[in-house]
């Protein structure tokens, strides 16, 4: 009975988590006339790929995908480069105010985006970056950089100090020790941190909506949300669902490819080496 109850709970959780995804697939494969038809059809019979063809033929959506890749890759790369240096200093060096600095970095992630979007808008416009991908890179780093620093700091702390001492004895500098000794040992943590930062940037919506005004810089999340029908007040649910699924597909592929690295990265920081 206990095992049966456990399986029932797992089945209920899976149904709760996967049903929206299934309904998006179901809606994207229905012809437009069947989406709002009654009674509700739980299977797209016959399936239609009209919505996918329309979305993939939309140059604005393709440009949004390109902007999403550009913004997510640049933000993740810059966050890892700056965050790894800061995390190494906070984890391995002793200086006054180290702990307050670490908690201050963590406190930066507690502010909701809507609370800072006004000030960021003035800064972006004053710098002449409005409606450019660089505006989204800079603003997205407000969330990815503190997260990167905090997570990588915990990974650097798990490494034994004997590794650094041995490299210093061999004549290595601090930079050589970081590059050739410490970073390779924290590879699982880097993969996990990079993937989570990439997902955060890829799914970001508020900054992408606030700091862009046309398809030159808008990301796929904003483009999909602003799909419009051929007539006024017509909502193209099929195209919206198809665009959302196409946008989600790269994240699913990344998680499947790096799932072992993700698991090892999430558990490595919990064990003191």
Describe this structure in words.
The chain is an all-alpha fold and 273 residues long. The chain folds into two domains: 1-48, no CATH class; 51-268, MetI-like (MetI-like fold), CATH 1.10.3720. Helix content is 74%, strand content 0%. It has 14 helices and no strands. Helix 4 (59-92) runs antiparallel to helix 10 and helix 10 crosses helix 14. The longest helix is centred in the first third of the chain and has 34 residues, at 59-92. It is globular and about 75 Å long. It starts with a helix and ends in a 5-residue tail after the last helix.
Can you give me a brief rundown of this structure?
This protein is mostly helical and 273 residues long.
Question: How many strands, which pairing sense, and closed or not: the largest β-sheet?
Answer: none
Rounded mean pLDDT is 86
Give me the count of strands.
Answer: 0
Q: What Rg, in angstroms, do the CA atoms define?
A: 23 Å
Structural class: mainly alpha
- How many structurally independent domains? 2
């Amino acid at each position: 009975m206990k095992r049966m109850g456990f399986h029932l709970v797992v089945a209920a959780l899976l149904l709760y988590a996967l049903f929206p995804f299934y309904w998006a697939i179901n809606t994207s494969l229905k012809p437009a006339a069947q989406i709002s038809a009654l009674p509700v059809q739980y299977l797209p019979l016959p399936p239609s790929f009209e919505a996918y063809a329309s979305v993939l033929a939309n140059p604005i959506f393709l440009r949004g995908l390109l902007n999403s890749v550009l913004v997510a890759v640049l933000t993740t790369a810059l966050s890892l480069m700056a965050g790894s240096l800061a995390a190494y200093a906070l984890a391995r060096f002793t200086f006054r105010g180290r702990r307050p600095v670490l908690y201050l970095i963590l406190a930066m992630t507690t502010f909701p985006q809507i609370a800072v979007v006004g000030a960021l808008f003035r800064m972006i416009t004053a710098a002449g970056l409005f409606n450019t991908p660089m505006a989204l890179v800079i603003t997205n780093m407000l969330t990815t950089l503190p997260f990167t620093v905090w997570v990588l700091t915990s990974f650097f702390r798990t490494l034994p100090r004997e590794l650094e001492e041995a490299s210093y004895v061999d004549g290595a500098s601090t930079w050589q020790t970081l590059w050739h000794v410490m970073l390779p040992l924290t590879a699982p943590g880097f993969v996990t941190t990079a993937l989570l930062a990439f997902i955060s940037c890829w799914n970001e919506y508020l900054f992408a909506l606030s700091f862009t005004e046309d398809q030159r810089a808008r990301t796929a999340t904003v483009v999909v949300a602003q799909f419009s029908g051929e007539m006024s007040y017509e909502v193209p649910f099929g195209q919206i669902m198809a665009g959302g699924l196409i946008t989600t597909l790269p994240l699913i592929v990344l998680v499947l490819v790096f799932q072992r690295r993700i698991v090892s990265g999430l558990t490595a920081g919990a064990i003191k080496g």
